[in-house]
Design goal:
Radius of gyration: 14 Å
Largest sheet: none
Number of strands: 0
Distance between the termini: 9 Å
Number of domains: 1
Helix content: over 70%
Number of helices: 3
Strand content: under 5%
Keywords: Membrane, Transmembrane, Transmembrane helix
Shape: elongated
Length: 62
């Protein structure tokens, strides 16, 4: 679990989620908001997948 929490890619995706949340709270609700959420979810999924692949290859300690 630590390998996911302390990964730079996952941390970056989580912190970018804070910006998406702020935009959701203060911005207009239109198609761009949906696109921001979809892109954030995709970047988080890629970050988690990258960490999982690196762990499977043995590059990250268990």
């Amino acid at each position: 679990m630590r390998k996911y929490l302390f990964s730079g890619a996952v941390l970056g995706a989580i912190f970018s989620g804070i910006g998406v949340i702020k935009s959701t709270a203060s911005g207009p609700r239109d198609w761009r908001l949906l696109l921001m959420w979809v892109s954030w979810a995709a970047s988080l999924a890629v970050a988690i997948g990258t960490v999982a692949e690196d762990a499977r290859d043995g590059e990250i300690g268990e």
